[in-house]
Amino acid sequence: MSVQGPPRRPLGSLNSTPPATPPLRPPTNQTGPQCLEVSVPDGLFLSLGLVSVLENVLVVAAIAKNRNLHSPMYYFICCLAVSDLLVSVSNMLEMAVLLLLEAGALAARATVVQQLDDAIDVLVCGAMVSSLCFLGAIAVDR
Question: What are the transmembrane regions (predicted)?
């Protein structure tokens, strides 16, 4: 007497879902063409971040060193450069952590990674708001 149970699946497919059939037409909420994913190489992303850091450091150093640039407008520009510097550094820090995690060089628990990601996101958002405020202050000063 043989007992028939569910069909056996290979071990690797326990958590996989069956492939979905592509829809014949786009869903009703999509009206335009499909969005394409753009992939920016990690080296390019890090090098642009480094260039941004260097440019903002040069702006801060020029304003701090030159006495002719010690007026309220240039202080606002200096604060804008510091805000942009924080955005650049936090983006580079986040990319470096992601690259280290992907390479396996950094072993961390999921909760630590989530807390670090939250802290970096708060830093980026705060620096972006600060940057916008200083842009507004520069516009009012002019």
Answer: 44-63, 75-100, 120-140
Q: How far is CA 87 from CA 25, 38, 50, in A?
A: 41, 21, 11
Residue 9 forms part of a structural domain: no
Give CA–CA dist 58/50, Å, rounded: 12
| Residues 84 and 124 sit within 8 Å (Cβ to Cβ) | no
Instruction: Summarize pLDDT for 91-125 with one digit per residue, the tens.
Output: 888 888 888 888 877 777 778 878 888 888 888 88
Phi, psi for residue 69 in degrees, rounded to 5: -100, 20
Q: How far apart are CA 112 and CA 33, in angstroms?
A: 39
Which residues form the domain of 88? 42-141
Q: How many domains does the chain have?
A: 1
Whether the model pTM is above 0.70 = no
Residue indicated by tokens 């600060």: 130
Evaluate the CA torsion angle 85, 88, 91, 93 in order and state its sign: negative
